[in-house]
Request: fold
Amino acid sequence: MRKVFLPRTLSECRSILDAEPDACVYAGGTDLIVQMRAGELNPPVLVCLERIAELQGVREHSDHLWLGAGTTHADLLNHSLVRRHLPVLVKALKMLGSPLIRNMGTLGGNICTASPAADTLPPLYVLDAELELQSKSAVRLLPLRQFITGPGQRQLAKGELLAGVRVKKPEGFNIHHFEKIGQRKALACAIASMAALLTVSSGGVIETARLAWGSVGPTVVISPSLEAALVGERISRTALEKVARMARQVVSPIDDIRASAAYRRQVAGNLLLRLAAL
Amino acid sequence: MIIAFTLNGEKRIIDVETDRRVVDILREDFGLTGTKESCGTGECGSCTILVDGRNRLSCLMLAIQLQDREVTTIEGMAPGGRLHPLQKAFIEHGAVQCGFCTPGMIMSSAALLKKNTAPTREEIREGLSGNLCRCTGYQKIVDAVDAAAREMEGDPRP
Reply:
């Protein structure tokens, strides 16, 4: 039998992790328990984080929101602060898994699983989210873009917990966009996805652009040169076609059971064209 | 480990291994075989139960997560054999064919109607999008939930 703990507070959780250094933490179980059943993981001890109130909820600060890592996708989706300030994240959460998965899975789990296809990651990249990583003795802040280093790979030290996500309230953007291409509308792992935050002038000229693609590289794909190429362009099909051709060169997708690399490359560019139709 | 929780309205105290799955405890220890397992990976919804009123997947929950929770399974939907309006509507509208997805469909429908007493057909489809049916084509399931919602207006049951 595998020991499973259900701590109610962070300090209780910390004591368990000190005593059980090989413990694996989980919250919703929508990835971990599936991987255990498939024989891919066999942690000797599990710690379930679902009851730790300090890891949950959304708090408003002057310039940013704090999103508890243990907050379920459903709770984030229904939260008035998230709906008001982070529409790009809300659009992705609506497409994530199914209502059942959203009732169980958490933001922290989606980040720490570090799948290139994770639906919350492209929005959190364009929002330039920072992670609050708690160890026994300290809390460190790390940009999400540095945290994830490859498929399933992240900069999480032993005994460290992702406690929360800090997201600056986006200012000045008038387009908050997310689109995911999957094989069906629900319960679909992304074939390709794109999040975008844009400022477009009343004359239709792009003034600022932040873009991030999911599922078309080993991690979320961002490209400052692509973003720069959009600035000053009209938000028109012709201008976007030009940048979409560049985007298809920037991404590095793979062939897998869901789609071919060539298809993903094509779609990664096509997702940009949608911006002209908004 | 000793775990105390409420199952279909009754307080229960059980002594179980903490890493057993909730679906196995319900089916094997309590004989509540209405809750089904199909995929075992969270993609089909056959094992849906209500936990504190929310629909969740019992194949991805471990025993310890039952502690202090209120759980409702399909067996808890018809106390004293009196069918829930959703169950009646599923029968009347031919929303059951092989029946394997039906308990999960009913539990997700119940969770949906608790949050949204008058869902549109699109909202019903979205609410049931984590529950797969390979027989009906879903049309009659949406018909049944739509009918039950109208029937239940003001009905406080889960």
